[in-house]
UniProtKB/TrEMBL annotation:
It comes from Parambassis ranga. The gene is LOC114444481. The keyword Repeat applies. This is Kelch-like protein 10. The keyword Repeat applies. It comes from the Eukaryota. SUPFAM superfamilies: Kelch motif, POZ domain. Residues 53-155 form the BACK domain. The lineage of its organism: Eukaryota, Metazoa, Chordata, Craniata, Vertebrata.
Length: 492
């Protein structure tokens, strides 16, 4: 280690490896070589994975590296479902396990994963750890589990049946399940609904609402200084939300693009697109934002372009085969799929695919229905086309495209017809938000579960609106700012 440190003193560089990182850090810390300590911290952060994060978390407890220690702990929480299958998890103390599973921001899709993790930890050394069963079970959000799972997996587990306190805990939850609400953990992603037309159908709004999927609750996060916008696209990229094109203030298509800094909730203009685009289709692929089609107020567009945040530039790509306004698009397996829309004289059934490697558009099988103002999203490794309208009126049907077979087939219809709505996937469920239901704008929200092939109702937005756009936030250091505070929910 001294040889490496002396070499660093003369050259300013050092070869940090997995085999020497901890010892080099300890030596640099002992000798108070601040720059070398930071280099080692950067190495730990860069090499974090589910198999080593707990070891690094434990190691950093003994040194004054609060920033790294916190980052590693958040990594453990974010990747918990993978971390629990590593050997390091089994070596934790009962207090460490409790500290992890008690957190609201523990990222688990289902609470069952927490129960199964503590069972795995206890059964690794059953004689020494069985006494902690009731302490750890008290940190599991049992009331957030399906009753069927509790009865078939929790109540039947020997660690529970052999512990009277555990039995009492579980029995109380089952008895009170219909009368109390559990304290939900924080979601791994937040759905934003941005702008649109208010219930009158003519007034643009700048309202932004954030949906906390775990609490089934919307929160208004509007910055009143932002210009109202509708018929636009929204995208989340590099920690920023971008609003692309649409109509701003009056019903004139714009080429402007704004982005919001999610730490300060302030907006700034970035480079405008080459074309004015209202009713534009927007998606993200390979670190770039793609904007396709739309209307400039006079012509329906087939042109397409993409934005590079690093250079703050828009570059044109090959035009689509069709002029498409009020279409919708998504990215799947490195390609962009755009479906339906309107070209001035008819609603479209056609769909096409863009490959950034060949820089070519290819027509794929047409949808079963003509759809304008539809929602298109990648979900469950396929492309879903939902709702919209055609000559017969507003649609509630949905269909799904398989890239492997180049075929469409119908899935369960939505509960409510809608077009010009928001669509996104959050935590393995497909959400549709607002829109026009054939009679008026709506605040209604519902979600689709592909495993069950059924739609369910979610909490309505605070305001009715159509022509809005949605995007999903994830991986932000301040995600809790976009969720409902758990203490305010008055939950247990």
């Amino acid at each position: 280690m001294m040889e490496l440190i002396i070499e660093f003193a003369y050259t300013g560089s050092v070869n940090v490896t997995k085999s020497n990182a901890q010892r080099l850090f300890m030596a640099a810390d002992y000798l108070n070589i601040v720059k070398l300590v930071q280099i080692c911290c950067n190495f730990f952060e860069k090499t974090l994975c589910p198999h080593n994060c707990i070891g690094i978390w434990q190691f950093t407890k003994n040194y004054h590296t609060p920033e790294l220690h916190l980052k590693v702990f958040h990594y453990v929480l974010s990747h918990f479902e993978e971390v629990v299958f590593g050997e390091e998890f089994l070596q934790l103390s009962a207090q460490d396990v409790s500290d992890i599973i008690s957190r609201d921001d523990l990222n688990v899709r289902k609470e069952a994963a927490v129960f199964e993790a503590i069972i795995r930890w206890i059964t690794h050394e059953p004689q020494e750890r069985e006494g902690y069963a009731d302490i750890l079970l008290s940190e599991v959000r049992l009331s957030m589990m399906p009753t069927e799972y509790i009865q078939s997996h929790v109540l039947s587990n020997k660690l529970v049946t052999d512990n009277l306190r555990c039995q009492a805990m579980v029995s109380e939850v089952i008895e009170c399940k219909d009368r109390i609400l559990g304290r939900p953990r924080l979601p791994s992603a937040i759905l934003l609904a941005i702008g649109g037309l208010k219930s009158s159908g003519i007034d643009l709004t700048n309202v932004i609402e954030a949906f906390d999927v775990r609490a089934n609750h919307w929160m208004n996060i509007t910055n009143l200084s932002e210009v109202p916008r509708s018929f636009h696209g929204a995208a989340f990229l590099g920690g920023h939300v971008y609003c692309v094109g649409g109509f701003a203030r009056v019903f004139i298509a714009t080429n402007s693009v704004c982005r919001i800094d999610l730490s300060t909730r302030t907006w700034q203009e970035v480079a405008p697109m080459h074309y004015r685009r209202g009713s534009v289709s927007v998606t993200v692929l390979n670190g770039c934002i793609y904007a396709m089609g739309g209307s400039n107020g006079h012509t329906y567009l087939s042109s397409a372009e993409f934005y590079q945040p690093e250079t703050n530039q828009w570059l044109e790509i090959a035009p689509m085969h069709e002029q498409r306004s009020d279409a919708s698009c998504t990215a799947l397996n490195g390609k962009i799929y755009i479906c339906g829309g309107y070209r001035g004289n008819e609603c479209l059934r056609t769909a096409e695919c863009y490959d950034p490697e060949t820089k070519q558009w290819t027509l794929i099988s047409p949808m079963g229905n003509r759809r304008s103002g539809l929602g298109v999203i990648a979900y469950d490794s396929r492309v879903y086309a939902v709702g919209g309208c055609n000559v017969t009126g507003c649609l509630q049907t949905a269909e799904v495209y398989s890239p492997h077979t180049n075929t469409w087939h119908n899935v369960c219809s939505m509960m409510t017809p809608r077009f010009k709505f928001g669509i996104e996937v959050v935590e393995d469920r497909l959400f549709v938000v607002g829109g026009f239901n054939g009679f008026h704008t709506t605040s209604n929200v519902e979600y689709y579960d592909s495993e069950m092939n059924e739609w369910s109702q979610a909490c309505d937005m605070d305001i009715s609106r159509s022509d809005l756009s949605c995007c999903v936030l994830s991986g932000l250091p301040n995600m809790a700012d976009y969720t409902i505070p758990r203490d305010f929910l008055n939950l247990v």
